Amino acid sequence: MATSKQTDANRRNAQKSTGPRTAAGKRTSSLNAYKHGLTGQLVTMTAAEAEARDRFVTALSEDLKPVGAMEETLVYSIADSHWRIRRAVAIEDNIFAAEAWHEENRAAEKAAEQNEECDYDDVDRALAPMRSFISDPKRFHLLTIYEMRLHRKAQADLKQLRELQAARRASEPHAPPAPQRAKAAATAAQLPESTGFAPHNGFVFSDRLSGPVVIHQTHPAVEISAGAAVHSPLG
């Protein structure tokens, strides 16, 4: 248990440290616990990154075609998971690139201190990622765990979305397929305007004969003048 002197000393020391006072300092200190952003709700990114993310979400939404708030929520969740997977891959690449750069700079500084020529070559650059991984494999293992979790979440959301869309389409009124509708419309357009008689034995009866008509039906051609009644040759 702290003594009264220690308590008084702690209070006096607390008065000396008031934390950041400027707006810039407060913004910096607000991110003290920020590590990678793969599991947090606060998305930290530049304006260019935000624009690229919005384009990605829009493109995915156009592909999955959500209808209603629930489907839109699932599509956004799928897009967010895939965006975080991309971020994890980028973090891993940046770790390798940054440490390779620092390693080469340290080699150059050491050579300069000893007045020697730096012998850091392409072989060292190729082996730099391996040395980065060996020095701290736990961080790469954590990134892999995050990626696997995000993949599973995206797959689960996509499955639920497909089920919702299938149920919605099943409840909608069924319409003839487009090719069948087009064929029916084309057939109707080819038929002459009828007086109500149904086609019989290949003939179409009409009372609008404006000139000689030649009818072909396994019989010699029969010429019919305008206004004449039409009779089936089988009748």
In brief, what are we looking at here?
The chain has about 240 residues and is mainly alpha-helical.
* Backbone CA Rg: 39 Å
Taken from the alpha-carbon principal axes, the silhouette is: extended
Helix-strand makeup class: mainly alpha
From N to C, what is the helix and strand string? HHHHHHHEE
| Relative strand content | under 5%
Q: For the residues shown, what is the average pLDDT? A: 77
* Strand tally: 2
Number of domains: 2
- Residues in helices, as a percent range: 55-70%
Number of helices: 7
Strand order of the largest sheet: 1-2
Structure description:
The structure is a single chain. With 235 residues, the protein is an all-alpha fold. 62% of the residues lie in helices and 3% in strands. The chain contains 7 helices and 2 strands, in the order αααααααββ. The chain has a two-stranded antiparallel ribbon with strand order 1-2. The longest helix has 45 residues. The N and C termini lie far apart (120 Å).
